[in-house]
Design brief:
alpha/beta
């Protein structure tokens, strides 16, 4: 009986793990399509100082490469990019540490009012990548997250 219950929980959990982020974001919506994360993926920085952007890029690259073996380029890719953006006009609903993460077929956008928000958005993105590291290349189901 215990074994059957355990297998049932594992089976049910396997359907929801791809969107599991801890702590749970305020809003998470799955969308159709997927983003292919591979070595042709690049990074774009908007509104962030060079020193802070370098730290964030290195952190993301190291975490992703250590877990998945995929090296993300630290410059703009030709087709698919991860875009980090500090908003010029603050989004009041996000506060100081909130972020929005949007994964679409050709780009991933992590936007925030501050560096702290970008860091938290990056943490959520990394968790999402790890949960979806089940095939090569890694296909990330499209989604939108907003958290503060």
């Amino acid at each position: 009986m215990k074994k059957t219950l355990f297998l049932l929980f594992v089976f049910i959990g396997s359907f929801t793990s791809y969107a599991q982020i801890i702590p749970a974001p305020e809003s998470l919506n799955l969308n159709s399509g997927h983003f292919v994360l591979d070595s042709s993926t690049g990074i774009v920085i908007k509104g962030l100082e060079l020193e802070k952007s370098s730290k964030l890029i290195n952190y993301l690259q190291n975490k992703i490469e250590d877990e998945t073996g995929v090296h993300i380029a630290d410059n703009k890719g030709k087709v698919r990019n991860i875009v980090f953006e500090i908003l010029k006009k603050p989004n009041e609903s996000l506060g100081d540490e909130g972020y929005q993460l949007h994964i679409a077929t050709n780009d991933i956008n992590i936007v925030a009012n501050s560096y702290a928000g970008l860091f938290y958005g990056t943490q959520s993105f990394i968790q999402y990548v790890f949960a979806n590291n089940i095939q090569t290349p890694i296909k990330l189901p499209n989604l939108s997250i907003s958290d503060k």
